[in-house]
Design brief:
single chain; 399 residues; mainly alpha; two-stranded antiparallel sheet; 73% helix; binds protoporphyrin IX containing FE
Length: 399
């Protein structure tokens, strides 16, 4: 896509955020083997890593793609409005990073009082999401509707709904509700709806924009491709809770949600493959990761004694989705043919990270583990950062 220079700059800042957040992920792995500074705690490093990835890496690029698909590059006022909104989002997201890293969700002493600054800044980021949704609604109201736009509309709806889960956590803390299940359920509702809904629907919207299919040419209603993902994303959060705490109704809801997601994804993969969207090496890696996601989720509904909420499996699954499908698609979509080889290296390094996470998931046969596995996991975790830095330098030079 031919992006406006403001949007290009936003892409560079997002990629820079990916680099910083991935180095933070490496720091976590390093800290598992070697001593870290006393003020650095694992939980806070994880928060700093995941929030920067969500706030500044995933969301702004999907948003500029969406905005570019409904406004003209020459419409200066519209470009400016979207840019001001997303720059603000990036600024607040970046500001929250050091507070998450040092204090996590704890209060920061400010002399006269102490405030949970990282949580407050996260709330402000969510307000910029509403700002974007409003601008998108105003700008896109009268535009023709193609299939990728249907995905974008659904993605924004899930972004809004997921944010309600995040506010819910604050309300529960404020009301001092004692049952930890409520707070955990709200957190995981946010996480599931954000990742499976907002991020996944947004990315599929980008992949659909690579096709020239119109709604009238489809033999089935376009709703079959996005409606199951929309509803499924809101139903699967019980899988992330402790298995013994959830009720049979919650389990049934989660399984139904998973069936919807699997069915929706199979429909998308089948159609996008037929449309020859996965026609480069990097896109073939995206296809492979999509199939892996479908298999992983199918395993969770079969009676295989697999609980996706278990720590090792959870981290593996989240990275198949977020580092794999989402990040590889963003790198593929936003960079040109001049960096094809680097894109392939990025995709391969991501596959290696996923393999290494599979090895420490708790399900890998112990006799097939290499010695010093955690040293290997640490070394592999820095690999995707290297092609990302190279792409960042190349694109900054060519601005
Ligand atoms: C090279 C890239 C990456 C590295 C090295 C990395 C590394 C890590 C590490 C070490 C953890 C903590 C694992 C644990 O608790 O045992 C983690 C957690 C997490 N990462 Fe990443 N990560 C990367 C990319 C990403 C991306 C692209 C995203 C999202 C867009 C992401 C989202 C998350 C989330 C949400 C968690 C928290 C999982 C949980 O709830 O326990 N990561 N990552």
């Amino acid at each position: 896509m031919d992006l406006h220079p403001h949007f290009r700059r936003i892409w560079h800042l997002s990629l820079l955020s990916f680099i910083i957040a991935s180095v933070t992920g490496f720091l976590y792995r390093y800290g598992m083997l070697y001593p870290l500074a006393e003020w650095l705690h694992f939980a806070n490093i994880r928060h700093a890593h995941s929030h920067l990835m969500f706030f500044n890496w995933i969301s702004p690029p999907i948003m500029i793609w969406m905005a570019s698909s409904i406004i003209k590059k020459s419409d200066y006022a519209a470009v400016r409005n979207f840019s001001v909104c997303i720059y603000t989002m990036l600024f607040i997201g970046a500001l929250s990073f050091p507070f998450f890293l040092v204090y996590g969700y704890h209060s920061v002493p400010l002399g006269f009082a102490s405030l949970p600054l990282a949580a407050i800044l996260s709330g402000l980021v969510m307000i910029t999401w509403y700002w974007f949704i409003w601008l998108y609604y105003l700008a896109g109201n009268n535009r023709p509707r193609n299939i990728s736009k249907l995905f974008f509309d659904a993605a924004l709806l899930t972004l809004f709904i997921s944010s309600l889960g995040a506010w819910g956590v604050s309300v529960i803390q404020f009301l001092d509700v004692q049952n930890p299940l409520f707070s955990s359920a709200m957190t995981h509702f946010f996480l599931a709806t954000f990742t499976e809904g907002w991020a996944m629907l947004g990315i599929l919207g980008i992949l659909w924009s690579k096709t020239s299919v119109s709604q009238s040419k489809l033999q089935i209603s376009a709703g079959w491709f996005w409606v199951p993902l929309l509803f499924g994303s809101m139903m699967i959060f019980p899988f992330s809770l402790t298995q013994t705490l959830i009720t049979p109704v919650m389990l049934l809801t989660a399984k139904t949600g998973l069936v919807l997601i699997i069915a929706g994804l199979i429909a998308n993969v089948w159609f996008l493959t037929k449309e020859k969207v996965f026609n480069t090496v990097t896109r073939k890696v995206i296809l492979l990761l999509l199939i892996l996601k479908i298999l992983f989720q199918a395993a969770a509904i079969l009676p295989l004694e697999i609980w996706p909420g278990e720590h090792g499996l959870r981290v593996l699954y989240l990275h198949i989705l977020l580092l794999g499908i989402i990040s590889v698609t963003l790198i593929e979509a936003f960079t040109g043919v001049k960096v094809t080889l680097t894109k392939v290296l990025f995709a391969i390094s991501v596959l290696l990270v996923i393999l290494s996470l599979g090895m420490i998931s708790g399900y890998w046969p112990a006799h097939l583990l290499p010695p010093d596995i955690y040293v290997w996991v640490m070394l592999i975790s820095i690999l995707p950062t290297i092609p990302a830095i190279s792409i960042w330098i190349f694109t900054v030079k060519n601005m």
